[in-house]
Every structure is written in C-alpha cells, then in structure tokens.
Amino acid sequence: MEATVVIIGSGMAGSHLAFSLVQKGIDVIMLEAGPKRSRAENLKTFYENPVKGPQSPYPSQPYAPHPEDGKYNDFYVQGGPDQFIGAYLRLFGGTTWHWTGFADRLRPHDFKMKSTYGVSRDWPIDYDLLVPYYVEAEKRWGVAGDPDYPWGAPRDGAPYQMQPIPMSYMDQQVTKALDKLGLHSAPFSHARNSEIYDNRPVCCGNNTCVPICPIGAKYDASVHAQKAEDLGVRVETEALVTFIEVGANKKITRVKVRKPDGSEFWVSGKYFAVCCHAIENPRLLLNSAQETAPNGVANSSDAVGRNLLTQANQDSWGILDEPIFPYRGPQQTGGLVELRDGAFRSDYAAVGTSFMNDGWSGNSDATNLAKDLIKKGMFGQELAKTINDQISRHLRLNSSAEVLANWNNRVELADEKDSSGIPRPKVTFTLDDYTKKGLANALEVNRKIFAALGVNDMQTDTPYLSNAIIGGTTIMGSDPKTSVVSPDLATYDHDNLYIIGASTHVTTPVNAPSLTIAALAIRAADHMADALTK
C-alpha cells in the first residue's frame, strides 16, 4: 500500500486529521489496529457483560490487545510505586467511544503554568493560537453549553452550537447546599446533543455515557472517521503497525503492518502521523529501534515515553435523608466552579469536582447493593423496595486533580511480550505531593458540602490514578533536547513524521483534553498540507 499521508490510529486525533486532509484533496490511508464494530454490536456486548466498567463493551482482541477492566496489571508491567490504570481502546473511532463527553477548551493559564504559577512547564503555544481550531472542532462535534459558563476559557462571543444539557434534580439539590457555603455550581459543556445535530439524536439520559451512549447522541470520533472514509480516505482495520522504518536521510519511508492471521505488509508514504494515544505512541516509537534510530524513532532527546501524565481522583460519598434521584441524564451534568484555577496553583493542584449522576459506583451501584442485601437474607419485594429507597438517596462527588509532568514518570518496553508479540508497556509512576495537597484541600470542601446536606459521616477513598486521562509521553516543546515534537507536532528527528494526540500535551489540567486533541489535529493538517505544497 502507498499514500501521500499514512495515519496510524482512527481515534480523535487520526479521524480529524484524516477528515481535514481529504477535504484538501490529499490521498490518505488510515490504519487502525482494532476492528470496526457497530454501535449495536458494542451495546450487545455491554448488556451481556457482567462487568460494567469503561472497557466492558469493547472486547480486547489478541492481535491488538488493550487494557481490560479489573485486569490492568495483566496489561501493564507496573514499575511502581503508584498503580497505573490508564484505559484506552483499539477500535475504529478510538477511545472516545467511552469518554465522558466533556467539550472544554483548556484555559489560557493552562498553557502557561510556569510563567503564571512557577510550576510545571509552559506549552510552546498559547490559547489564542488555538482559538480558530477550537471553533472548528466545536462545529464538527456540536457542543451543548451555556455561554455564561465557559469554565475559564474565553469565547469572545463564539456561540455554542446547542443549548446546554439541563442540570439534574440532584445537581439542583447540591447547589442549595453550596449556596449556604458561598460556593457555586455550573452546567458542563457537552459533546452530546440537546437537539438534533449532524443527524444524531437528542440525549435521552440513558446514564451509560461511560462506557457507551446507546443511541449516538454523544459525539465520538467514529463519526469523523466514517466521514473521512466516505470522502475517500482508505481505511484498513485490524492492521497493527509494529515498526516504523527510518531511511538513511532520517526520513520515515514506510511502516510494517500485521494482520490477525499473522501476515505482514508495508505501507509507504511521503508523510506519516502517529495518532494512537499516549501509551501506544511511545510504545511503537520505542519498538522501532534500528540502526538509523538506535534509541527508537524520534527519540534523540530520550524524551519518548517520559513525562507521562494523568490525573488523580478521589471520591466522597454518603446517603442523604431525602431522595435526590441519581441516574437521571448523563453521568455528569454539573460541577463545582471553585478550585479549578487560581493563584493557589503555585502551591497545590487545581481540582475539578463533579456531582455524579450515577450514584456511588456507576453502573454497578444497584448490583453491589443487591449482593450485600441478599447476603443478609433479603429477597423479593422487600429487596426491591430497599434498593429503590437507598439508591435514590445516594450522592457521590468525584474530585479530579491535575498532575505535574515528571521526567521519571514514564512508559518503557517490558521484557515480556503481549498476545500480539509486542513488548508489554512498563509504566513507572509516582504521584506528586502537589497533587495530593490539591486533593486534600478538595476533600475538606466536599466534607463541608455533605455536612450542609445533613450528612456528617461522609465516606471517602484514598487518591487513585485516573483511568480516563493519559498524556505527555511524546511531549511538545521548543527545545529538541527535552521534547519530541515541535509546536507544529512534527518530530524534531524526522521532518515527515508527526505525532498527534494527548501524548504531545505538556499538562493535563482539569478541563478535558479531547477538544484540544481535535483542535491540534486540525491545525497539524494545515501544517502538513503546507509542507506538501512546498
């Protein structure tokens, strides 16, 4: 196979890059390691799977495995001390199949953490540079939001495409408690429809956004992966890229692809883009060590795999005296305004606290309670009545904190191989005190919120690493000695190789990274097209 541009990965980065390039008349092949499955197939798998975690609708394939719920240590080799549980998919459309659907821009301060707060490092680009690409990405997705609550990112009058998703009854009851404390709530902006948009239906509140929207009201990258294919992008699924070949002139010449039956072939191109998320990106680059790239592709800086980013979570929960009726609407419709940005970030992490519409434990809430009650001998109508009574009064607040980049938090190749014959990812991660201090502060705020709601025995867990956010492993920067890609996302070592996705992000603040991934992919398409013209 051969194309002008070869894209590896069909998720948020790859799909928007492919869609942008094909609109410019550029010949594109998009290679996806996993299968192409319909929403109906994924939904059936979810219903039949007794596990209801984020990966549950999406079977891991032996020819291209990904992490599975409750089996993260079977996938990752843990280098310690903190357990890494990053979840991602190998599937047409990528990991956004099971994302929350938050449609937030990063804040201006998020790009300038070192300059503004004296911690972390600055991005080599700023907010203003990305604004037109944010606008384009929002139009592609369709975003439902309230212009009065842009979550710290100036919009300069740019409207959302749809009216906001209404805050739930539960949100409204929590807000009454916040009023007593001088705190504030606001509705989130969503990449889910509050009206018909792009022929996709209106959100009807199934409350299973993670792991799957059963009707397609929530945007996912399969939408633009399919649009790109419809416009002429050649898509090859079940095509695991195992090796990137570097020529004597340091240019990428071709990539090796393996099919499920073990057969292999090469794909040649003029330009290449690695868009397979923040674990597989460095894993592929490191696995491609060769005479012309002895430390791995794009790795003269030794930064490939380093600066691994995630977020850290902590849950607080309790049972109220009166029903607040969770399980209405999307899993998160509103959250706490405070603690997300401010001068305090010089000393401790920003934290985003969400009011969880999915009870204490998400899709397993009622199941877990039923098991406990059955063990106590309860059954029949008494069991059903007790479950309904308790679940209707369950409240959980989830606090998610930013994590600083650390050179020694990293992804490496382990000695043992996975079922596809590729070395397993070895992950070493240490949670920093900056993040722990931010979560400790948020925990005290949560305690006050529960007390204002009449709950004085709030329960909590210990901080744990997020499975939803992964970034930083091929970091962008202005210095080739400490970063992997330039501000244009072209690698410093190979001028015809781009890396796109959260792996290039310098920070992972509390606003979700997905919109920034799409915006940077659209911008990279412009840069790549200009390079091809020249």
TrEMBL record:
Domain of life: Bacteria
Entry annotated with the keyword Coiled coil: no
Glucose-methanol-choline oxidoreductase N-terminal domain boundaries: 171-310
Transmembrane regions: none
Cofactor(s) the record lists: FAD
Span of domain Glucose-methanol-choline oxidoreductase C-terminal: 408-521
Alphabetized InterPro entries for the sequence: FAD/NAD-bd_sf (IPR036188), GMC_OxRdtase_N (IPR000172), GMC_OxRtase_C (IPR007867), P2Ox-like (IPR051473)
Entry keywords, A to Z: FAD, Flavoprotein, Oxidoreductase
KW Oxidoreductase (keyword) present: yes
A GO term for molecular function: flavin adenine dinucleotide binding
Annotated family: Belongs to the GMC oxidoreductase family.
Protein name: Glucose dehydrogenase
